Amino acid sequence: MSFIIGIDIGGSTTKIVGLRDGKITGAAMVRASDPLTSAYGAFGRFLADSGMQLHEIDRVMCTGVGSSFLKEDIYGIPTEKVDEFRAIGLGGRYISGLDHCIVVSMGTGTALTHVCGDQISYINGSGVGGGTILGLCSKMLGTRSYEHIAELAMRGNAEAVDLTIGDITRSQLANMNNKTTASNFGKVSDEATDADFAMGVINMVFQTVGIFAMMAAREHKADSIVLTGTLSRMEAAKPVIVALEELYGVHYIVPEHSEFCTAIGAALYGERK
What we know:
With 273 residues, the chain is α/β, with parallel strands linked by helices.
């Protein structure tokens, strides 16, 4: 039985998973600004948590923007690099169980891939993502802590900062309800709290990415959009996703292990070899 490690070295976090005969055996995540430190830190945490020994690992498959900094095998284990967009598609298909879908990787930025059976193709990307949330909240709220921003947003109300359809008209506009956003941060009031601003930023980012993905799904005639990456697990974004589903009639899915999607895809690619 082969044991493959998949590592996704991103712009701010590194994820690692273990895969034995197509089944996930464990996963870990670390945050570090240096890609090599992050990769080796994730590897060490995975070994400590799983109790595995180096000699039990057959191959390490690396992907993500930070994988370009790896110039040698990790701890002497055969180490290979996997195209990130292929890893996103393979991982998205695996965790969703769907053969036809749009897979959205929400990391520091955002990448979209189209999955149709064994055919996986990169669609496009956007600079809007987790980095946008951290950068804006750094200036607006004085924090770059992902956990603090997520906690604040749970207590916030985007309608305290966003202009809605109901604010500008009493008429019914197409299929939009009164709470549909007309302008992000178009109604900032003196009463708006830090929590409201945090929720406003998350609302804006998820609306932007969600609409972007919806347009790709329509273009490729896909019924489902699979949301992956660290941002996909953000609890405060759930109402935003539900509102997008109601507005556009598409199905957004956040499967189990969504934050580890790309690392899983890298490991799956290693199993195929």
